[in-house]
Amino acid sequence: MFVAQTFQKNLHETTLQGMGMNTQPFNSKARRSPIYSPRKTLSRFSFRSERPLKHHHASLDSESPLTNLCLKACRSFATATLSFSLITGTPTPAEAVTENQLIYLEAWRAVDRAFYDKTFNGNSWFRVREKTLKTVDMPTRQSAYEAIRDTLKLLDDPFTRFLGPEQYSALASGTRGSVTGVGLEVGFDASAGSDSSLLVVAPAPDGPADRAGIRPKDSILEIDGVATQGMTLYEAADRLQGDEGSEVELLVQPSGGGGGRIRYVPVTHGMCGAVSEAAGGAGRLGYVRLASFNSNTAAAAKDALRELKAGGAERYVLDLRNNGGGLFPAGVEVARLLINAGEIVLIADGDGVRDIYSADFSAVDDKSPVTVLVNRGTASAAEVLTGALQDNGRALVAGERTFGKGVIQTVVPLSDGSAVTVTVAEYQTPSGTSINKVGIQPDLPLETEVPSTPREFCQLVEGASAPRLFQ
Fold this sequence. Notes:
- The protein has helices at residues 12-18, 65-69, 84-88, 99-114, 125-135, 141-153, 165-172, 208-212, 233-241, 297-310, 328-338, 381-391, 454-461, and strands at residues 43-48, 161-163, 178-179, 184-188, 198-203, 219-223, 226-227, 247-253, 267-274, 284-290, 315-319, 343-349, 352-358, 370-374, 396-399, 407-413, 419-428, 444-445.
- By secondary structure, the chain is α+β, with helices and mostly antiparallel strands.
- It is globular and about 80 Å long.
């Protein structure tokens, strides 16, 4: 497989998705189902595309949190073979250590230096290493890899994990693919030469393509009626991005069945009439649903809020249910649309808070009442936004406890071409509350099923049986 990857600064979660990491939870809760109409060999898909958005940060440091936090994690391990006695604290001579043990020690040291939880999940990290070296045989490189994996399991962190040489090479050399606006990593099969068709490397978890049933190794034959044969990867990726708001249609040949036709709109909004007393009082209500955080989300949300405000909206509902996150900067930018001043999110590692993202006095509306709808499918960047609005007293949070995914990873290469991904920091709400594994508790639990389309939502809140959404 030869494909190419384009990386964007600070887009940590996109980068991690490109190497195969789960940056969004695999949530089994019901989501809006795509229109699905399988065909025998070929399937067409229509997507709502997105354009790239320039991200702006308000950090205490000029560097990104990932760059800022992983400096110590990315130090050279070149001296490991020369100073094993210093690493282990034992008089064992360097020549007595096998190459496989040295790989294990490199991985152990990467976690020791960079892991954000300095209690190491209640383990004595030094004793873990000593016990492993004394009791685990590592006659082969694969046995060393298994020892690394077993050691990392003790951290109880699914995002700190080992990458074999092939997995890491796919990321580091830029051969994993290009992540597109329709939620696909795509590439070409080099073994097929000039006859290769555009292949799906992987669909983004719970993205529009994933929900439509597109799977790895499916072939994309056409993009908007244009054959992909002869296209460069970057030309194909550009066509898959499309213009903002445009519909992208794909002709797909499944490798093992599946497929369908869907339309995907990342941001939807609508204006409701007077809110019933049952829902919390009178006044026109603007409804905004964010399905994910991508390069277009902040701009689209800004346009939606401006339109609703101009139309007379006196309060808003921001629907983040089943929003599994996406690009962290997009979540920060949306928060700045509703918070004019104050902290939005803290980035903390084992040494404490290392970075702070704040509002930049560019809010579209920082006065009107806001209710945020969340559930167990609300995660990552969506939780950052929810926590910022809740802690700043800017919004009432209604629904269920959120998923609880609030960590940042970096990748540390090892000398044999393998690597470990290490959780180096966590997101904290402005009050200093950790999101990870805890989630955000709603202010107002909801027992009534609330629709997720503007028209049906408005019908509910305008009626006498509406759930209470505002205090």
